[in-house]
Design a protein that fits this description.
- By secondary structure, this protein is mostly beta strands.
- The protein has one domain.
- The protein is about 10% helix and about 35% strand.
- The chain has five helices and 37 strands.
- The strands form nine sheets. Strands 9-8-7-6-11 form a five-stranded mixed β-sheet, with no helix packed on it. Strands 15, 16, 17, 18 and 19 form a five-stranded antiparallel β-sheet that branches. Strands 25-24-26-27-28 form a five-stranded antiparallel β-sheet.
- Strand 33 and strand 34 form a beta hairpin.
- The chain is globular.
- About 0% of the residues have low confidence.
Length: about 525
């Protein structure tokens, strides 16, 4: 007996095939979403500006947050951290910007500031403020942030002070400017020229300076300026006019303070562009009350490049008083009085290199050495008083060229290593074994991402690429905890990228913020 096989009608066959394709596609889509589903954050929530050596394995996504999750209506423009609280600034969506996810149902023209607790499995919004004045800079000041005419406490969002008028948001390296508009000094030279709207105030006051009188045309180099020192609560601490008894104009420079004092300087007599080249230090100012003292400075003053702050005051290098061709280290108190004088012995570090070095303790707090510690480090190259150090370049204070004394390298197109610098003040592992930095300009990483160039995980000091934030759909990031980076999503403006996002790859279409942890095993 034979059995004949009956063929199904053609329409039925097509239907079954279509159903099979849909089932396979659904399974693939479901598997993709499961594969790319964030697992949540479960780390130690240890606040740090360093990252754990565990990041050497690469990146994973702990969580993704949408505009609706954060209760905002605009785009995330920038983030910062204050005492473990994540602060996010959201700006209204701009029509001429690349498409970015927003909460379009409730979108408004108001900028927003939110405080976020990211220590749980997923982020929790602590507070939310609608902002009416957001042009320019937002000043991160101790436990608070000054936005426009308000001081907002980071922990709970409480408005602790209201200012009569906002601080000028133009940051300056000194009191002098050819502009008639007032500018602000906060003791943070690293903020100059950076694009972030968040600026950390490093002094106990913020100093605003403007010409003491109106000028019809350009402001002359010897013009007098009037300065006001503002407290965090919006009150004036003291005022200062830059005219000195010597007939010169001199005032504080935008540099880190030493025990509440900052040096006062005037432009070099042959300085054709005040504030752009040499400054001559001729005294010290107490930032608490604005009092000025000359201290034990030589009659001719000091060139700015010959002084650096210590935990006791200042350390300077000057011509020796005992030998014509030698130099001495002279340590000063915060108000400029001489404490000790030591013959200079040339060692493994140059004075210039040490001035460009910043060090931290294991808790990621900046460490300022004593004068003796600084001298010993210059002589030996050893830094027993700090956990990690970076050396910045001469041309850009945000570029780093060495970590823990090791010169950073890059491999050329010919396969040879050569010294290199890494920009945007890289995120460094505490043990100095790697860094996360903006992709170098000669790197293909970040192509197709219009909003920001991606950041790369590099081995240190070799510069070998280990991973990229773009591997998990992120572009740039800041450290919040030692095992959590907070990143901006990379939303490439292409049809293919949007389809991949719909299939479950990172970032998902509505994501505005991402939590990045070390890559899990397997």
């Amino acid at each position: 007996m034979t059995t004949s096989i009956r063929r199904l009608p053609r329409p039925v066959s097509k239907l079954i095939a279509a159903i099979a394709v849909l089932i396979v596609a659904a399974l693939a889509l479901g598997l993709s979403w499961l594969t790319h589903r964030p697992t949540g954050y479960s780390g130690n929530a240890r606040v740090s500006s360093f990252i754990s050596p565990d990041f050497a394995s690469g990146f994973d996504v702990a969580w993704e947050a949408t505009a609706s999750d954060l209760g905002i209506t605009g785009q995330i423009a920038a983030t910062t951290t204050i005492d473990g609280v994540l602060i996010a600034l959201a700006l209204p969506e701009q029509a001429d910007e690349p498409s970015q996810p927003t909460n379009k149902k409730t979108a408004t023209s108001t900028a927003e500031l939110v405080g976020i607790d990211a220590s749980g499995k997923t982020p929790t919004v602590l507070w939310h403020h609608d902002l009416t004045k957001t042009s320019g800079k937002l000043f991160v000041w101790e436990d608070s942030i000054v936005v426009g005419d308000q001081t907002i406490r980071a922990s709970d969002g409480a408005v602790t002070a209201t200012w009569k008028e906002p601080l000028p948001t133009e940051l300056r390296p000194s009191y002098f400017s050819h502009s008639p508009e007032p500018g602000t000094l906060v003791g943070n030279p690293y903020a100059l020229g950076q694009k972030s709207p968040f600026v950390r105030v490093m002094w106990p006051v913020a100093l605003t300076c403007e010409p003491a009188k109106s000028w019809d045309l350009s402001i002359p180099n010897d013009a007098e300026f009037s300065c006001q020192a503002w407290r965090k609560d919006g009150t004036v601490a003291w005022t200062y006019r830059t005219s000195g008894d010597d007939g010169r104009q001199h005032a504080p420079i935008n540099v880190p303070a030493a025990n509440g004092y900052v040096y006062v300087a005037h432009p070099s007599l042959d300085d054709e562009e005040p504030g752009m080249s040499a400054w001559v230090i001729d005294g010290f100012m107490n930032l608490v009350d604005g009092s000025y003292v000359r201290g034990d400075l030589p009659e001719s003053g000091l060139i700015e490049s010959s002084i650096l702050p210590t935990s006791e005051g200042w350390l300077t290098v000057r011509p020796s008083t005992t030998s014509k061709f030698a130099e001495d280290y002279v340590s000063l108190s915060p108000d400029g009085h001489q404490i000790a004088q030591t013959p200079r012995v040339y060692g493994s570090l140059t004075w210039k290199a040490f001035r460009a070095t910043t060090c931290w303790d294991p808790q990621s707090q900046v460490v300022t050495p004593t004068a003796q510690q600084a001298i010993e480090t210059i002589h030996t190259g050893e830094v027993p008083w700090a956990a990690a150090c970076i050396e910045r370049t001469d041309t850009d204070v945000s570029d780093v060229k060495a970590i823990n004394g090791q010169v950073l390298m890059v491999t050329t197109a010919d396969g040879y290593p050569e010294p290199a610098s890494y920009g945007r003040t890289p995120i460094v592992a505490l043990d100095g074994s790697f860094l996360v930095a903006e992709a170098r300009s000669d790197s293909p990483d970040g192509e197709g991402v219009k909003s920001a160039r991606t950041m790369i995980l590099y081995d240190a000091p070799s510069g070998v690429r280990l991973a990229a934030l773009s591997d998990v759909g992120a572009s740039s990031a800041i450290p919040l905890y030692d095992d959590l980076l907070v990143a901006s999503p990379a939303h490439p403006d292409s049809w293919l990228a949007r389809q991949r996002a719909l299939l479950g790859t990172y970032p998902h279409p509505d994501t505005v913020l991402m939590g990045i942890t070390p890559k899990r095993a397997g």
